[in-house]
Amino acid sequence: MTEILVIHTGGTIGMVPGPGGLHPAPGVVETALGALAPAGTTLTVIAFDPLVDSAEMGPDHWNRIIDAVASFGGQGVVVTHGTDTMAFTGAALSQALAGVAIPVVLCGSMQPLNTGGDAEGNLALALGTAAAGAAGVWLAFAGRLMPAAGLVKHHAQDADAFRAVAQEPLPGPFRPRRFAQARLAILTLSPGLPADALGAMLGRLDAAVLRVFGAGTAMSDPALHAVLAAAVARGCRIRAVSQCEAGGLAPGAYAAGAALWRSGVENGGTDTPEAALIRLWLSVLD
C-alpha cells in the first residue's frame, strides 16, 4: 500500500464563494481527495487550522511543512497551497529539504474545486506524482510537473500561470533546515531611486535581495554606492539578482555594474528573487 501525506494549507483550491468573495472552507479538499487518489494509496491529511490564504504564508508555516515532511515515513507528500506566494514556498521547501528522498509536490489552482476549472487536474497530477514520482520538490500545475526551486508566477489569471527558471543544484545529503525570524526583504532599483530611501530600508534589515538592471548594472550614483557599501560593512548581506526573468547576472560585463561588486554586493547569478531571499534567510541563521 502506498502512503501519501497531504498537507492542506489553504488557497484557492479549497475555497468557496462568500459575501466578501472566495474564502477557505474546511472539508473541500478532503472530499475531493477521496475521488482523485490513485488506486492502492492510503492518504493521511493534515489541514492547517485555520486554513491560510497564501498572502499570509511565512517562515512559521514553512517550518510546519518541513517538520511534517521530515517525520513522514511514506512514499510522498502533497502540499496544497495558494498561488500568490507559491514561488516563495517552492524556494523555501526546495532549499530547506534539499536531498529529500521522496517527492514533495506543491499543488494549487486558479479556480476552486467543484467549479469546472483546473483544480481537479492539478490535484490528481500532484497525487500521482507523490505516489510514483521522482524525489525532490515539485509543482504540479496546468498538466506539467515543474521543479519548485525557481518558480515564477507569470500570469495573474490564466490556468497556465507558472514557469520554472533553472536554478543551481542544491547539495545533499538530506538535512532538514528550519526558518527563524529574521528581517529580510526584496528591494528593487528604479531610475531616480533616492539613495537615502534605500539606506533607510537597509538599515532595518539583516539581509536583502537587490533586484538590479539587466545583467548586473546600477545607476552611477556615488551616494547609492556608499549606502550599499555601508550596509555590507555593518554586516547586512546584499544579494543581487536581475530584474529580468531569465539569464542571470554577468559581473564585469558592464562598467555600470562595477560599483555593485566593489561595494561587497553578492552575485546572485541565476537566482530568482524568491530563491535568493530564501538562500539568504537560511544562511544568516547558520
Question: How does this structure look, described?
Answer:
With 286 residues, the protein is α/β, with parallel strands linked by helices. Helix content is 29%, strand content 22%. The chain contains eight helices and 14 strands. A hairpin with a 6-residue loop joins strand 2 (15-16) and strand 3 (23-24). The model has no long low-confidence stretch (mean pLDDT 95).
CATH architecture descriptor text of the largest domain? 3-Layer(aba) Sandwich
Number of strands: 14
- Helix and strand composition category: alpha/beta
Which radius of gyration do the C-alpha atoms yield?
20 Å
Number of helices: 8
Distance between the termini: 39 Å
Mean pLDDT figure: 95
Question: Secondary structure elements and their pairing?
Answer:
Elements: E1 2-8, E2 15-16, E3 23-24, H1 28-36, E4 41-47, H2 59-70, E5 76-80, H3 86-96, E6 103-107, H4 119-132, E7 136-141, E8 144-147, E9 151-153, E10 162-164, E11 184-188, H5 195-202, E12 207-212, H6 222-233, E13 237-242, H7 258-262, E14 266-267, H8 273-284
Parallel strand pairs: 1-4, 1-5, 5-6, 6-7, 11-12, 12-13, 13-14
Antiparallel strand pairs: 2-3, 7-8, 9-10
